[in-house]
Amino acid sequence: MQTSATPTSLEAKLLLCYAGVSLFVATVGGALGSHVLTSLDARSLHSFETAVQFQFLHGLALIALVLAGLRGIGGRWLWVAAWLIAVGTLLFSGSIYAKTFGAPPAIVSVAPYGGVAIMVGWLLFAASAWRRS
């Protein structure tokens, strides 16, 4: 029998769903980069591949963060860190994907904000783990 959902369990479900969709998109992106985007110049292809790698790694990391959070490791800071990493990945990888598929080149100006959000998320995760030890 399942008890009523707590905000943390809803948050965990949202983050796990996000991670699953993110990993799906990264898988599609990897396939596109290998088989479809052969006309891209080397720099654009490298940027696209970097976006795919970041999305893969951070999608898997989100799963680990959620599992740690469900075990009570890190407290509220861990959940904030997970959301920063999720949003940061979306901004970073998403802006590079958008440019690759025809969005105005200025869209990539969003990527640094995503990168900073990811970095802050990882620092917050480290701080959350330290606080709870």
Instruction: Determine the mean pLDDT.
Output: 90
Low-pLDDT residue intervals, each spanning 5 or more residues: 1-5
Helix-strand pattern: HHHH
Structural class: mainly alpha
CATH architecture: Up-down Bundle
Largest sheet: none
Instruction: Classify the fold: give the CATH topology.
Output: Four Helix Bundle (Hemerythrin (Met), subunit A)
Number of domains: 1
Q: How many beta-strand segments?
A: 0
- The helix fraction, in percent, is over 70%
Compact summary:
The chain is mostly helical. 79% of the residues lie in helices and 0% in strands.
How would you describe what is shown here?
The longest helix has 29 residues, at 7-35. This protein has a single domain, classed as Four Helix Bundle (Hemerythrin (Met), subunit A) (Up-down Bundle). The protein has 133 residues and is mainly α. Helix 1 (7-35) runs antiparallel to helix 2 (42-70), helix 1 runs parallel beside helix 3 (75-100) and helix 3 packs antiparallel against helix 4 (111-131). Mean pLDDT is 90; it is low at 1-5. The protein is built from 4 helices and no strands. It is 79% helix and 0% strand. It has helices at residues 7-35, 42-70, 75-100, 111-131. The chain is elongated.
